[in-house]
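cron nightly-structures :: item 1 of 1
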Amino acid sequence: MTSRLSRWLNDPLILLIFAAGLLAFAVQSGELGTADTMHRLQTTHWLWTSQPQVLPSEYPEFGLHGRNGRIYSWYGIGQSLIMLPADVIATWIAHWSIFSGYQDDPAMRSILVSYSTNIFLNVLSALVAFRLLRQLRFEVRDSVWGVLALLFCTTHLHYTQNMQENNYIMLLTLVGFSFQYEWLRTRSRRALWIGSGALGLNLLTRVTTALDIMAAGIFLLMVVWFDGVRGRELWARAVAYCKVAVPVYIFFGLLERFYSWYRFGSWTQTYIPIFARESRMQDPSLPTNFPWSTPLQEGVLGALFKPEKSIFLFDPLLILALLLFAFLWKRMAPDVRAYALSALLLLVGHICFYARYTYWAGDFAWGDRYVSTAVEMVALLSIPLLLHYKAELALWTRATAAFLIAASLVIQIASLMFWLPLEIYQIETLGHPTFVIALRFKNIVAFALGKMAAWGLDTEAMHEDAWDYVHITTWNFLPFLLRRVGAVPVWVVDSAFAVWGTVLAVLAAVLLRIRRLLRIQSHTT
C-alpha cells in the first residue's frame, strides 16, 4: 500500500486526476446552477418515474405543446441521460429517514447530482485533454500545465460549478478528437468507433454539435494533408473513415430525430417553429422572424466585443492562444497546426450560427454560453505552446502571457463567487451596456466589506424573488449557502465548512506536489 501511494504521489497524471476531482468538489454550491439544468433534471426524472417532463407549474414559462397535447421540454436529452445514474441514487438517498426533517434548500437530490456528475465530468475531461495534448507530442510537463489551465483559467471552471451542458459537450468533443486522431495514426477501428460514438452522442445534447463533428473531420483531413497524403491514399483513408463514422453519426442522428418526433410529431423539424409560434401567442409584440431576429453583425460583434459577453473578456487565454498562433505558426508541429485551425473554424462556426439567434449569448449565462466550449478548445493550446517555445519568445511576449494567465485565473475564480443571476438583476437597474466582469469584482469587494447597499448594488430587482435574493446574497459555495438558508443545524454547517476547508488544503498540496514533480522532471530531461 505504501509503495502504491508513493507511485501515485510521483505520477503527475494521477495527481492531475486528484486535482480535477478536488477542484470540482470544492467549487460546488449544491445547486444545479440554472433553471435550464433543473428542467433537464426533471426530464431525467421522467425517464424512470411517472412524473411528467414539465411540471404543470412551469408552463407557460417553460415547455411546449407536443403530441397528444402534452407539454414537453424543448431541450435535447443528452444531459438528462448523463444525470440519470446520479438521479436514481440521489432520489433514493434523499428519502432516507435521516433527511426527513431537512427543508430541502438546497435539495438533497440536487446536491448529490451536482457533486457526483460534475466531479465525474471534470476528472474525465482532465484525462482526455491530457491524452490529446500528449498525442500532439507535447511533453508531460506542458500537457499537465495545459490541462490545469483549462480547469482553472477558462470558463470551464465556471461550468464546473454552474451545471450547464457545456462541460459535457466539451468532454465528448475532446474524446472525439483524441480517439479519431488515434485511429488516423494507428488504424485502430476501435478508436474510430469510440471517437465517432462520442461525437455522435453529442447530437443528443445539442444539435449544433454537428459543427463539432465537422471540425473533427477537418482536423483529420488537415493532418493527412500536412503529412503530404494525396490522391488514392487520401481517398482510401476517407473511405475507411466514412465506413465507420458515417453509420455512427446516422444512428445518433436518427435517435435525436426520434426523440423530436416523440415529443413534437416531426422527423424533419426542430422545436424552434413551435417555440416561435407559442412565444408569439404569449407576446404578440415579438417579431415575425423570432427567434432569429438578431442582425448578423450584432451577434458576431457582440460575441467578440460586447462588454457583457465578449469571449476575450471572459476567456483571456483565448487572446494568448491567438498571439502564440501568430508568432509561432511556422514553428508549430503540423498536427498542432491542424488542431489549431480546426478549433478556430469550430469557434467561427458557432459564433456565426448563433449570431442571428435572439438569445445569441445563451440568455442567463456567464459569458457567451453557446460558444464558450469552442473558445476552450482553442485556449487548450495556449499554455503548452507557451511552455514549449518559451525560450524563443521575446520578453514582452512572456510578460503579456503572464498577465493574461493571471487575469484568466482571477476572472474564473470571480465567476464562482456569486450565483450568476446577481449581475442580471443588477443590470435591470444599471442598464446596458454593463462591464459584467468589473461589476462582479465590485460585488465581491462590496459584499466582503458589507457595502452592497451603500454602493448602490442592492437593487430593487434583486428583491423581486425572495428565494433568489437569499441565493444571490451569499458566497456561492455549499457551506456558505447552508449557513445563509438556515435549513440545517449549526453542526452540519460547521462540518460542511470543515470538509470544504480540508478539500481546499488538500487541493493546494496536490498542486504544489505537481509543481515540484514537474520541476524535477524538467531539470532531469
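cron nightly-structures :: done
The two ends are 29 Å apart (CA to CA).
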